């Protein structure tokens, strides 16, 4: 199976899903696993896993798809990778992404853009573009991505696969290269929702190396009747054709006799400015370690346009004299957004909504930074709040997949995952 998949990856090189494949290393590891009788009983035995290029895997180039780190070969495994290996899984390769996870299209990688396997003239979405594309093209069994403002859910939606962003603190970030550490979570990209639940059980849990993690009991597959919320503002900002697909998905829940409640979230306009202000400040601070002394290049000297924009603006708004004007205001707005979300969710189990308000643009089509940020309007809320959010395919428009987003309350990941399973 390993050889067959390595061949398939080679054949599908034009998708540009992988940016580091080490055949010998993989074959050697496969042989070792095959001889290990204990490994054969483990849940991930025989599974091939693709990993986003910002999650450390020992012996691979973990470049964050940036020239800055092109020579960085990781000396260690992130906690999630340790857990995957302990459970018998085999890492098949490292996937392409937007540079330092800054983007929603998969086009800003130093290694060139990823193609959407389901609609090859379109962007695959980002920033976990290679991970979603690898799952969509069946170049692995499942993949890991990271989600700061939608980077698992957006490409899952555009590529027609399942993606899940856990509640903040459920999965350890140890070994993940930060974009914005108060938002970042690692999560699975899979072929179906049940796989997502099972992988979550393996990668979740408290980790001494990440003090923001918590223990949460194992997720079980169980049917229930969720009380479903539909948020007027989320639907209003979305293209009509996508909205129609979501409305059909809502019908599926109606048919399961779920109660459907119309909700309102008045502060949606605040979501993107708040998210990006905090993102710039946290990203700026995270990039200070790429100063040219430790990893080879100084980030400002070699990075792309979007990364440079964030560092430049981040450095200005991080200055003390401006913090009251921007950063502190953003933190206040974040609290407001959280409070209102919790209020809205009070008697609700899940919210159904579109994932991305627009269809993906054509690969290479010029769009402005603001247009790029606008793709994120429906995904950043879960990160601002720390809430769980998953995506399941719910149809196609002119052969372009569309994903239904299901969000829940913080730490009610199990409810979201089960709603995803029930919808499928
Ligand atoms: N598009 C968003 C950003 O550029 C989200 C990125 C992400 O989730 N990593 O910040």
Please tell me about this protein's structure.
The protein is of the alpha/beta class. The protein has helices at residues 2-11, 23-35, 79-86, 129-136, 153-159, 193-203, 232-236, 240-255, 268-286, 299-302, 305-317, 320-323, 327-344, 369-374, 380-385, 413-423; strands spanning 18-20, 48-52, 90-95, 142-147, 162-165, 185-190, 228-231, 260-263, 350-354, 389-397, 400-407. An eleven-stranded mixed beta sheet has the order 1-3-2-4-6-5-10-11-9-7-8, sandwiched between helices. α3 (79-86) links the parallel β2 and β3. α9 (268-286) packs across α11. The longest helix has 19 residues, at 268-286. Glutamine (GLN) binds next to β4.
In short:
With 424 residues, this protein is α/β, with parallel strands linked by helices. The chain contains 16 helices and eleven strands. The chain has an eleven-stranded mixed β-sheet, sandwiched between helices.
Q: C-alpha Rg, in Å?
A: 20 Å
Please identify, by name, the CATH architecture of the domain at 2-203: Alpha-Beta Complex
Main beta-sheet annotation: 11 strands, mixed
Query: Which topology of the domain at 2-203 does CATH recognise?
Result: Amidase signature (AS) enzymes
Counting helices, strands and paired strands, the structural category is alpha/beta
Q: CATH class of the domain at 2-203, anyone? A: Alpha Beta
The H-level CATH homologous superfamily of the domain at 2-203, spelled out, is: Amidase signature (AS) domain
Average pLDDT level:
97
Order of helices and strands: HEHEHEHEHEEHEHHEHHHHHEHHEEH
Main sheet: strand order: 1-3-2-4-6-5-10-11-9-7-8
How many strand elements?
11
The total count of helices amounts to 16
């Amino acid at each position: 199976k390993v050889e067959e998949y390595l061949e398939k990856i080679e054949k599908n090189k034009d998708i540009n899903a992988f940016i580091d494949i080490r055949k010998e290393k993989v074959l050697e590891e496969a042989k070792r696993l095959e001889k290990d009788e204990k490994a054969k009983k483990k849940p991930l035995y025989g599974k091939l896993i693709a990993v986003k290029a910002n999650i450390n895997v020992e012996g691979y180039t973990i470049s964050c798809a940036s020239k800055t780190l092109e020579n960085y070969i990781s000396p260690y495994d992130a906690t999630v990778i340790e857990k995957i290996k302990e459970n018998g899984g085999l890492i098949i390769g490292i996937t392409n992404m937007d540079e330092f996870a800054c983007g929603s299209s998969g086009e800003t990688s130093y290694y060139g853009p990823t193609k959407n396997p389901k609609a090859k003239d379109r962007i695959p979405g980002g920033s976990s573009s290679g991970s979603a594309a690898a799952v969509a093209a069946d170049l692995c069994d499942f993949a890991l991505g990271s989600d700061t403002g939608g980077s698992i859910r957006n490409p899952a939606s555009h590529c027609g696969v399942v993606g899940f962003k856990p509640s903040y603190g459920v999965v350890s970030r140890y070994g993940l290269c930060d974009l914005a550490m108060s938002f970042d979570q690692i999560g699975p990209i899979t072929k179906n929702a049940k796989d997502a639940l099972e992988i979550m059980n393996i990668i979740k849990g408290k980790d001494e190396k990440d003090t923001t993690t918590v223990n949460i009991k194992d997720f079980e597959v169980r049917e229930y009747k969720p009380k479903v919320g539909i948020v007027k503002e989320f639907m209003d900002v979305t293209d009509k054709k996508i909205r129609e697909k979501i409305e059909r998905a809502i019908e599926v829940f109606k048919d399961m006799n779920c109660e459907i409640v119309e909700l309102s979230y008045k502060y949606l306009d605040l979501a993107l400015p708040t998210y990006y202000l905090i993102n710039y400040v946290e990203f700026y601070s995270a990039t200070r370690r790429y100063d040219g002394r430790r990893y080879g290049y100084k980030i400002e000297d070699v990075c792309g346009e979007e990364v440079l924009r964030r560092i430049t603006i981040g450095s200005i708004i991080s200055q003390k004299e401006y913090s009251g004007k921007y950063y502190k205001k953003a933190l206040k707005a974040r609290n407001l957004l959280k409070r209102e979300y919790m209020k809205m969710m009070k008697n609700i189990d899940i919210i159904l909504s579109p994932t991305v308000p627009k269809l993906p643009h054509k690969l290479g089509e010029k769009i402005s930074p603001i247009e790029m940020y606008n793709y994120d309007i429906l995904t950043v809320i879960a990160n601002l709040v720390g809430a769980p959010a998953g995506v399941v395919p719910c149809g196609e428009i002119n052969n372009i997949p569309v994903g239904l987003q299901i969000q829940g309350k913080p730490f009610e990941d199990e409810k979201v995952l089960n709603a995803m399973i029930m919808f499928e």
